[in-house]
Structure formats: structure tokens, C-alpha cells
Amino acid sequence: ANASNEVDKWTKAPCRFCGTGCGVLVGVKDDKVVTVKGDKKNPVNKGFLCVKGYSLGKLMNATENRLTKPQIRRNGRLVETDWETALNLIAKKYRKYIDNYGPDSVSIYSSGQSTVQEGYVLSKLMKGAIGTNNLECNARLCMASAVGGYLTTFGKDEPMGCYDDIENADLFFIIGANMAECHPILYARVVRRVRNSDVKVIMADPRETRTHKISDLDLFMKPGSDVALLNAISYVIIDEGLIDEDFINKHTHLKQNGKEINLDEFKSFLKDYTPKKAAKITGLDPKDIRKAARMFADPKRESLSLWTMGVNQQVQGVFINNAIHNLHLLTGKICRPGSSPLSLTGQPSACGTAREVGTFTHKLPAHRIVANKKHREEMAKHWGIDVDKIPSKPSYHTMAMFEAINRGDIKALWVTTTNPAQSLPNFNKYRKGLEDVFLVVSDVYPTETTKYADVILPSAMWVEKEGVFGNTERRTQHFEKAVDAPGDAKPDLWQFLEVARKLGYGDLFPYKDHPEREIFEEYRECTLGTGKDLAPYDAYRQKRGLMWPVVDGNETARRYVAPDDPYVKEGIEFYGKPDGKAIIYARENKGPAESPDEKYPFVLSTGRVVEHWHTATMTMQVPELKKAVSETYVEIHEDDARRLNIRSGDIVKLISRRGELELKAKIGGRGVPQPGMLFVPFFDRKRLINLVTIDAVDPSSKEPEYKICAVKMRKA
Ligand code: SF4
Predict the structure, then answer these.
(1) Which residues of this UniProt protein bind [4Fe-4S] cluster (predicted)?
(2) Of the residues 18, 179, 189, which should be mutated to test ligand 1's pocket, given the most ligand atoms within 8 Å of the CB?
């Protein structure tokens, strides 16, 4: 039913899927979601939704395959049980391992799809109560390199820009992002801006995508040559006198290999990246590189950089982020309407739950870090615990955590709202660990990961519970519980609190009447005065989200602003750094971990299609989305296809040093990789491309290189 008069009540919510955070209105009748529509009052999407957002109503009614009863493994088989039995088993196992092997023998792997409240409770449970930093978040797989970029360049995480920059930008530099499919509503805002004015778009990507439809300048660079391209653009900006020297002097340092350098030294570093030299690395026409630099640095234009996984999921992810920031710092095009480096996120609360609350191993709530004594002291005081309880060293990043599981160092793992058996790269290497570890999985549908579980906990989904998500532009958005979860499914928050109490930590988790509110208020208190201040809970219940920092319940700044900063009028501050100055880094282009060679001559890249979200555990439940793209495929350039006598629809085998996979060939269509490159969407659980991908990680962000590995291909 879709007619408004068949609805008992409407409730607002951020979309369940991507990090854009579009607002929806959920229509409910007789405890059922009967319709979902775009929320015109929400400033993010102004009423528009993409195909996934429109499918939310159908998703909420796709209960046929839902997990509705707890299950435990008995004699090798999963059997249904009751909550008490399942939770007692988890508590018993966790307690046994903690007592026998120490707190570091247990772990939780959480998600950018968890609510802020869920993330905060996990952080408190693991770091404050159990006393281990074995808490990681799947956001490690998607935007850890963006975090690393912001931290190294500016001294603090999260973009200073916001979505309103789109309507103020005159030049879009879109690098490593297929926005038309992965961030369609933001792409629509870009398209509207481009159509209505003399606005230009530069696209840098090794693969032609739907996003290129609005491009004025295409830079189809070789995979893994991003730093070379960006350095070459920096070279031209300096060479042609397009820099803002006053800005550079006042607001930046320049550094190479940890040492201060001056602008001349930076320029001489860049001599290895003249457009001509960079052309050899990138495969681009030097004239196009010059053109891109002139377009970006044009003083009459506000320039907005947008990027996502194409940048972050490389072993040079952090360096590429730094090199993007360089363009803005060299030209002073930053922290003013329309000019900003704005990284895009993939999950609805990757920013809110992973970055702000601290479900990464190295973090604590409100962007604090475990390695900082003052931060540990502040959180220990806030939680009423001994400061020594919080370990000062970060524990395992995601891939290292699964290696520790392989080794048997971690004996228990609780996976919540994520699906590592499908999403971890080089999964063949990690399967055994998942088979052996005591594995708890909280989710809404059966997944690749639940196959390995010893305990499955059926979770409430989206508006079957109450919570808060934080989106890409630092907007915190609240949603009410609108309907009951099917069967015995329960919110993850309830599951965490029950286990915390059964483990004997009840005093630390005394929430009673309204846990979502009480937990949020407890979290909010530790944001106050940090520059990431949040508003009281009720403000979010009323409003269509608030971007932090919030003061007196209102958004005081749409981008970070420090009151004592001389550039305050322009909204510039980088106060994370001791002297308030950002850093322009001289970064070398080192290329990928694994390059193609004679034996494995193709570069394989993975990514998404608009119809499916991540591992498609939810979108495959919506018949229309499943029908639209029912199985994955490999995109091949027509020259390669001709040479290998492959036609669209043929079954081909991809083989890497780690695994192999058969899937259908696709030549032409929504994406066209360059010759020598292949592209595979990763949503299909029956055809796991992550058996083939590589698990090399960026040395500082520890984000895996999903975008580049070497494979060979033959007709199956
Ligand atoms: Fe949901 Fe993202 Fe689509 Fe917006 S763009 S409707 S947040 S999936």
C-alpha cells in the first residue's frame, strides 16, 4: 500500500544504506511499514531518493528469510534456541577465555551500520569493562585511509566541508569515485549544479563509469598512479604561479620524509612529476594534466574534491589523500563555501559510529585515542573505572585481527551487522580461522558469515529499533522505533547490554527506562568541549539532523571553525596541529602491492553497482533489485575481449595467486575498464570475488587494496 491515507503515522529516519544519509519518511499502519518516501524537509536529499532508498519499504517487509530466532551450534548443526540459552553461552565462553587467557583473547568486530549508541556501548564494554582494545570496525575496509589523510594533513579527522559546498562549487574534481552508482543523491546534486551554471568537472579514474557523463575532462589514469597524477597537478600549479603563497605561509608547513622543507624544495621534489614524466606513470596526455591543474587552480573558481574507495582502497591510500589535500592547501581553496576536500563514506554511520564513537581499535569516544594518556584518563573518569583498565596500545586492525584469529590468539569473535566472510580480501586465507574461533554473529538475514557461526543472534533492523547515525558531512540523525522486529529478533544494543550484565559489568551499564537516550546523553557529555560537541538527544528527535560541532543545541558552523583562528571569517582552522597549521606532504608514487606481469597480466578492481549495497544481504531480499542485477560479472575492455575471443555472457575464469572464480563476461555497458583492467562488483555471495583479491594493506591506515591486484583470465 502506498497511499498516504492508508498510513497511521509517519516517522522520519536517515536511510539505512549509504553514508550520504538521505532523509526518509516511513509510513506505518498496523505495525507494518507500508511506504517509505523521500523527506523533503531533509537538507541532504530534499525529498529525493535513489533506487535503494525507495526500496526500504519493500526491505522492511521482506521477512521471509529473516533471522527470527537465536541459534546455537550443536554437534556441528545450527539449531534454534531461546535468548537466555544463547546469551548465557556467549557470556560463559567470553568469561572463560578472559579468565584463562586474558582480555586480549576475546574480540568484537563491529560495523559502520551500527548505531552511535551501539558503538558507544561496545567501546565501553571492550575498552572500559573487559580491558582490551580488540574492538574493530568494518569501516577499516572503506575509509580508514581518508581518516589517515585528514589526521596527517590537518591533525584531526573528518572533513571540514559539507554537502552545501556542492551548490557553491564551480569545479568538481572527482577522483576514485563512481558517484552516479555509489552516491547517487549527491551525484544528482552535482548534476543539478553542473546543468545550471558554467561549472566544470574533472574525472580521474582508470575505469569509465556512469559518472563520466558529466565530465569535461577525463583522466583515465593507470591503476595505482594517483599520487603521480596529483603530484603532477601540484607541479603545474606551482610552475605556473597558481599558488596562494600568502595562504601557504600562514597556514601550512611542508614536509618530506618527516623533515620540514620549503616551497622551493617541494618544487624540486615535484620535478620527478612534471606532466611529461608523470605521463609515463599515469599513461595520461601531459596536456590534460596541465589542463586539470589550470582548471582546479583557476582563482575565479571554487574547487571541490570528492573521492571515495577508488582512492582509499589502495596501499597508498593515505598518501593519495594527502596529495589531494595538497591541491587545496597550495591554492588556498579550502574551508570556504564550494572549496574543500570532501571524502565520501559508504556506510550510514561510518562517521558516527566508527570515527566519532571509536569502534576502531586505536580509538576512544569523541575522537579520542587510546595511545593518548590524557584521553584515557578522561574516558576512565567518565566511565568511573581505573585508568589502567584501558590498554594504552592499539590492538589489531581488521586484517591483523583475522590473522590473530587464524593463529588462535583470539579465541572468541562477535561479528555485528557486517559480513567478513564475504567482504574480507583474500578470504581463502581467513576461512580456517572463522571455522575454529568461537563465533557469534548478530545480523538480520543469513549471510556468508553466519555459515561459520557458533551462535546466531537475530537482530532488529533499522526502524525496528531506535538509534542515531552520523553521515559523511558530520550530520547526526535520529530515528525512532516505528515497528516491531519479526519473531524474536532484538536490537543489537539490547544484546550487548544483556551480555555485558551477564559478564558481571552491570554497574557500568545501568541504563533502565530509555537506554538509547541515556547512552546518547552519556556519550554526548564526553564530546562537550572537544570541538565535536553534540546536542541534547531531544534536539535530534525534533530536527532533520545537526552537523557537529553543535553549541547550545544549534549548528554554529557548517565547517570546523576555531574562534581564535585569524582566518575565522573564511572559516579556516586546523587546530588539531599544535601550531594550527596543516601539512603539505611530498609523497612519492610507489604504485600497488601487486602489479600485473607476464603470468598475471590483468589488473583486477572491485566495487559496487547502484542496485546493491555492499554484500547485498539486504538488497538481494528486494525482488526488483535482485531482478535488476541478479549476479555479478566481470567487465572487460573490448580490445582484450577480442584478443582472447571472449564475448559478453561467456563464462570466464579469473585466477590470482590467491584464488579463482568463474563468472560471466561483460563487454560494454555501465562501466568500461581500460585495456588490461577488469572490474567485478563484489555483492554476489554465490560468486565471491574476494577469493581472488589481495589482502595487502596501506602501511599506516591498514586499509586493504581492493582496487588493485594481478590476475589472469581465460575462458572457462
Ligand atoms: Fe539511501 Fe544512499 Fe540512496 Fe540516499 S543515496 S537513498 S542514503 S542509498
Answers:
(1) 15, 18, 22, 50
(2) 18
Q: In angstroms, rounded to a whole number, what is the distance separating the alpha carbons of residues 76 and 589?
A: 49
Model confidence over 126-176: pLDDT tens digits?
Answer: 999 999 999 999 999 999 999 999 999 988 888 888 999 999 999 999 999
Given a contact cutoff of 8 angstroms between Cβ atoms, the answer to whether 69 and 487 are in contact is yes
Asked if residue 50 has its Cβ within 6 Å of ligand 1, the reply is yes
Atom index in ligand 1 nearest the CA of residue 183 equals 5
Catalytic positions = 52, 142-143, 309, 346-347
The pTM score is: 0.96
Cell of 19: 553514508
Residue 581: predicted pLDDT: 87
Contact 335, 325 (CB under 8 A): no
In the three-class reduction of DSSP (H, G, I as helix; E, B as strand; rest coil), residue 470 is classed as strand
The protein residue whose alpha carbon is closest to atom 6 in ligand 1 is 53
Q: Which of 582, 604, 585 is nearest to 661 (CA)?
A: 604
- Domains of the chain by residue range: 4-61, 80-142+348-555, 159-346, 602-715
Distance 79 CA to ligand 1 centre (A): 36
- Per the annotation, does 384 bind a ligand? no
CA of 542 to the centre of ligand 1 (A): 21
Q: What would the pLDDT profile of 425-484 be if each residue is shown by its tens digit?
A: 999 999 999 999 999 999 999 999 999 999 999 999 999 999 999 999 999 999 999 999
Question: How high is the pLDDT of residue 569?
Answer: 41
- CATH topology classification for 602-715: Barwin-like endoglucanases (2.40.40)
Q: Which residues of the chain have pLDDT under 50?
A: 1-2, 561-571
600: three-class secondary structure by DSSP = coil
Asked whether 52 lines ligand 1 (CB < 6 A), one says yes
The two beta strands, 259-261 and 252-256, are antiparallel
Fold of the domain built from segment(s) 80-142+348-555: Rossmann fold (3.40.50)
The C-alpha atoms of residue 498 and residue 80 are separated, in whole angstroms, by: 19
Distance (Å) from CA 48 to ligand 1 centroid: 9
Q: 615 a known binding residue?
A: yes
Looking at this predicted complex, what is its ipTM?
1.00
Nearest CA to ligand 1 atom 5: 185
Burial of 618 (0-12, 13-18, 19+ CB in 10 A): buried
Q: For residue 25, which phi and psi values (nearest 5 degrees)?
A: -110, 130
Domain 4-61, what fold? Phosphorylase Kinase; domain 1 (3.30.200)
**Residue 137, marked binder:** no
CA–CA distances in Å: residue 555 to residues 39, 42, 305: 20, 15, 24
3-class secondary structure for 224-249?
A: CCHHHHHHHHHHHHHHCCCCCHHHHH
What's the pLDDT at 571?
42
In CATH, the number for domain 159-346 is 3.40.228.10
The C-alpha cell 524474536 sits at 488
